[in-house]
């Protein structure tokens, strides 16, 4: 009987032991090897995410219809806006959970997790229903008005994708909670399961089952459901914080840390999505070729940026947990390591993308006019890519040490404070060529702002 009780107690304490060992490792391990170990799973995940984001565009391009390619682009801008809500709930709760774990407050961690999951699911259901009800005006608003065929394809695609939105919000919330609490691998396993499902089903549905364009939408829907289920299962294993709707507590403090703590991520993702919608609206005046070229060039340029974001995400749990434990100098050193490695990577990436711009864009389009425009846009964007490592890490740094509003300013600067005014000013003064300069101008200004703010606000802790 005693042996049975001892075995049960041992099993009960295993998750707690794993949680404590993970905490101690993040607080004491040598920084550079730790950064690499934490970042590698997220970088792998970003590579798969990169392939995932390119998959629909790649297979749709094989159908040879530029309206279909443009429809994927404008639908993605809307879905990324909804994903911003998942980042909001996930980052806000994940940051609070990580600091609580650093301080040894495990029960508080569970409450943050549950509260955010309930908020994500409820929001997803509401947004999904609203999207289906207002599908026609919605597709026109996000850029579908450029042509009747674009409006038709975008509405058809979005009608299927809208069903997936509750799963999208759940997945991004739980993924970011796992990642920010130090279990990057389990978080990535969940997202990778959904992405790989989509990648496999895309050619099967589009060509094998002869579903054509709409097959890509159903592949995405099934991928989102699979990813959500895998994340739900993994959250209850390996010393993670299990998903439990019953532990949600909507106190003022809990909601504050989730909403204000995740606001920089929501604002960054939301502003990025809004800027994409505005970009498509402005680009519609120059024709479908320009919209398609912007879709192609942005997907290629995003490859390098997504990877440096993956590198930065490995820094985040180290930053938050060490800050929660009062190890401030360790936080500063981790920040410096992260920026240096990221800048080198982005510089090399910029050279590669510039030299092979045509080869990369030809993978995603068969239309010569679209390719020529996309090459011009991509090469201009390459000039400012090296600045993006400092910008991205600076925002994460401010957020993870609890300077939410400072992080918010940095986050919205690139695609909001600088991008949106530049979009209208440059296109009004320079026309289509001005459209190509919008992102590089915004990148330089955002980098300068981040450099000033981080040096002024991030050197001393209260």
UniProtKB/TrEMBL annotation:
Membrane topology according to the record: Multi-pass membrane protein
Keyword Transmembrane on entry: yes
Keyword Ribonucleoprotein in record: no
Keyword terms, alphabetized: Antibiotic resistance, Cell membrane, Membrane, Transmembrane, Transmembrane helix, Transport
Main subcellular location of this protein, as a coarse class: membrane
Transmembrane segments: 25-52, 72-91, 111-137, 157-178, 190-209, 215-235, 337-357, 377-397, 404-428, 434-454
Compartments (UniProt record): Cell membrane
Cross-referenced PANTHER family: MULTIDRUG EXPORT PROTEIN MEPA, SPORULATION PROTEIN YKVU
Membership in a protein family: Belongs to the multi antimicrobial extrusion (MATE) (TC 2.A.66.1) family. MepA subfamily.
NCBIfam families in alphabetical order: matE
Protein name: Multidrug export protein MepA
Phylogenetic lineage: Bacteria, Bacillati, Bacillota, Clostridia, Lachnospirales
